[in-house]
Write a structure and sequence with these properties.
single chain, alpha/beta, Rossmann fold, 3 domains, 20 strands
Length: 548
């Protein structure tokens, strides 16, 4: 016999769990302590929203089920926004949510967690009985894993502390199969490729999850196709000379021109959102689009396509390679195209430095960071007007080098996302790019960064405003006093919490911190960069507000 919370811990460990994020209250105290006692790393956040945002980033990078535990009542309601983000992004998470004891309908903590979870797009599961405890949590874990969605596991307090003889179950029998479209469909795709002179392979997150890089690069080589990714798959083709970068709001000037010349798009695991398509201004209307996705519900969902088929990205690419003629029709991979890609990248796009005596140009700041920081890095983006600048100028090494939690377009998750990323890959430098608005929304998690001494560089693009609203409404003649604020000394706050911090106002200030940035023992570090608020964030910004 054992306590149910002990059995839940053992079942999670048997399922391969070694890291849990959360915030502990009386409702989940015994479970959290049981996990920690058994050797599971418990990362204690300062706010439940931060805890789940950490878990989300960790799960995206490791491609494992992320585990987060929260207290009952407000402990759960505090995770609503990051839960919606995870649900929209199809992140596999298991939220261990404490609940009041069975029948405690008059408790101040009473909440309909089940329906609230469903309303957020998550799957509710429940700890039903002491006898079924291990079966219940294994079922919830598997649903998160195989359905690739957040699952909220509701744990009544009285059942958690009950005695049970339930056995810990084996969870090693899971089998994955690769799905390949039928021969008829493959032949149709091959026919499109035969007729294409300027094909582009567009890889989304589904291609990342499938481990499809090699297969897609080989397919590109065999067909003469250029390579591109969605924002969520950024880095998948890092280092490949035929990669034109991100499709959508962050597209370089050269990528936009090349997409507009394309005569075939092969989309692997890409949802084709309005963001990716630039509201139908990126891909010519006459260009055929073939969409391959493992999830049938994703096909045609965001945009009607010429041909849609269910298939695993890697397996389908490999099957197409076996079906292709020896001589591809595409002739886009020429020296002139290669030169065009290089010359029209963001790094080679000239701009006039708009730094002043008191503020720095955010482009200049970003270019400096690209040059000064080690390449073994992860770039984590918060949301806000600033976010194009780090994407434009800070390169990443691979698909594990980028975290972009923007399915719900919330601000405030940059720092907690960075914590999750740093816990997942402590051998890399995690760069948290955030605005002052997003940073102040998650200020409490600066203490978490300091407490765990994580290898994180927090770069605050500080314009003392909600810059997106300023740049959107001010040109219309609206006053913006409600979204502008006095300058905040964020560096002083960070230092008070135990983080090395520097204020950046001019390009001269950058050179003074180069040595600190090169010293791994200096981290965590925060840069409070007072950026010139007049520098506009680029075309992505207009797209973000279009159809808002």
């Amino acid at each position: 016999m054992a306590k149910v919370y002990e059995l839940l811990s053992l079942q999670l460990i048997q399922s391969g769990i070694d890291t849990v994020f959360g915030l502990v209250g009386s409702g989940n105290f015994f479970l959290a302590e049981s996990l920690a006692k058994a050797g599971v790393r418990f990362v204690a956040a300062r706010h439940e929203a931060g805890a789940l945002a950490m878990t989300d980033a960790w799960a995206r990078l490791t491609q494992k089920v992320g585990i987060c535990t929260v207290h009952m009542g407000p402990g759960f309601t505090n995770v609503i926004t990051p839960l919606v983000e995870a649900a929209k992004a199809r992140t596999p998470l298991l939220i261990l949510a404490a609940d009041v004891s069975t029948g405690a309908v008059t408790s101040t903590f009473t909440l309909d967690i089940e329906h609230l979870s469903s309303a957020c797009g998550a799957i509710p599961e429940r700890l039903w009985h002491p006898v079924t405890a291990t079966r219940d949590i294994l079922r919830a874990f598997r649903r998160a894993r195989f359905e690739r969605r957040p699952v909220v596991f509701i744990m009544p307090q009285d059942i958690q502390v009950s005695e049970s003889s339930a056995a810990v179950l084996d969870s090693t029998e899971d089998i994955f199969t690769s799905v390949v479209p039928e021969r008829r469909i493959l032949d149709q795709i091959v026919a499109y490729l035969r007729n294409a002179q300027r094909p582009i392979i567009l890889a989304g997150r589904g291609a990342v999850l499938a481990g499809a890089r090699e297969a897609l690069e080989n397919l590109g080589e065999s067909t003469g196709a250029l390579l591109a990714t969605t924002a969520n798959a950024h880095g998948l083709f890092a280092g490949n000379p035929w990669s034109i970068g991100i499709a959508g709001g962050f597209s370089s000037p050269g990528a936009v021109q090349l997409f507009q010349q394309a005569d075939l798009i092969l989309a692997f695991g890409a949802s084709l959102t309005v963001w990716t398509r630039r509201h139908n201004r990126l891909i010519p209307a006459s260009c055929p689009i073939v969409q391959i996705d493992l999830d049938p519900s994703a096909l045609h969902r965001q945009h009607p396509v010429t041909l849609a088929c269910v298939g695993d990205a890697r397996a389908t690419a490999e099957a197409l390679l076996d079906s292709l003629p020896s001589q591809p029709a595409g002739r886009w991979r020429t020296p002139s195209t290669l030169e065009f890609i290089r010359e029209h990248s963001w790094v080679h796009t000239a701009y006039e430095d708009a730094s002043t005596e008191d503020t720095i140009d955010p482009r200049t700041l970003s270019l400096f960071l690209e040059q000064a920081l080690p390449r073994n890095r992860i770039l984590v983006l918060d949301s806000g007007h600033f976010m194009a600048f780090p994407v434009m100028y800070i390169d990443i090494p691979d698909e594990k080098g980028f975290v972009f939690t923007q399915a719900f377009q919330s601000i405030g998750f940059g720092v907690p996302n960075a914590i999750g990323a740093a816990v997942a890959y402590p051998d890399r430098l995690t760069i948290a790019a955030t605005g002052d608005g997003g940073l102040l929304l998650s200020l409490s998690e600066l203490e978490t960064v300091a407490r765990y001494r994580l290898p994180i560089l927090i770069v605050v693009y500080n314009d003392a405003a909600y810059g997106a609203e300023v740049h959107h409404f001010a040109p219309m003649g609206w006053p913006t006093s409600t979204v502008q604020f006095p300058d905040t000394d964020i560096a002083a706050v960070a230092r008070a919490l135990g983080i090395h911090a520097f204020t950046i106002r001019t390009p001269r200030d950058l050179e003074s911190i180069r040595e600190a940035l090169s010293d791994s023992s200096s981290y965590p570090i925060l840069l409070d960069a007072k950026v010139n608020p007049a520098v506009r964030g680029g075309e992505w910004f207009d797209l973000a507000f279009e159809g808002h």
